[in-house]
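2024-03-11 09:14:02 INFO queue: dequeued item Cytochrome P450, len=114
2024-03-11 09:14:02 INFO validating residues
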Amino acid sequence: MSNSHLRLKKARRARDHLHDWREAQQHKNATASVATGPGYMEWRRPPANTLKCNVDAARYVDHNMFCIGACVRDEHGRFIKAFAKRYIGTPEVHEAKALGILESLKWLQSMNMC
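2024-03-11 09:14:37 INFO prediction written
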């Protein structure tokens, strides 16, 4: 790939990230109100000397993709590890979350964490 193609690819990626950031800022207040409304779950510590892995998924229907992610924290809430993956397609939310759980378990097993 030539330098001009690489620069163009980087510029497009930067543009896409800026677009995503702007969208997130527009929905920031709506998201904040959901986070404190019905169904909101506050993070709870795991038992002493254990870790907790939280998993989530997000769909981007307009971009025909979805993402899964996981975050591992200790009993004090300290960040240990995290991962995220992006996929093409827009499955139902429960399907994306199920895949997130499966991939998280594989990831944790690969590091001998479960």
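2024-03-11 09:14:37 INFO annotate: The longest helix spans residues 3-26.
2024-03-11 09:14:38 INFO item closed
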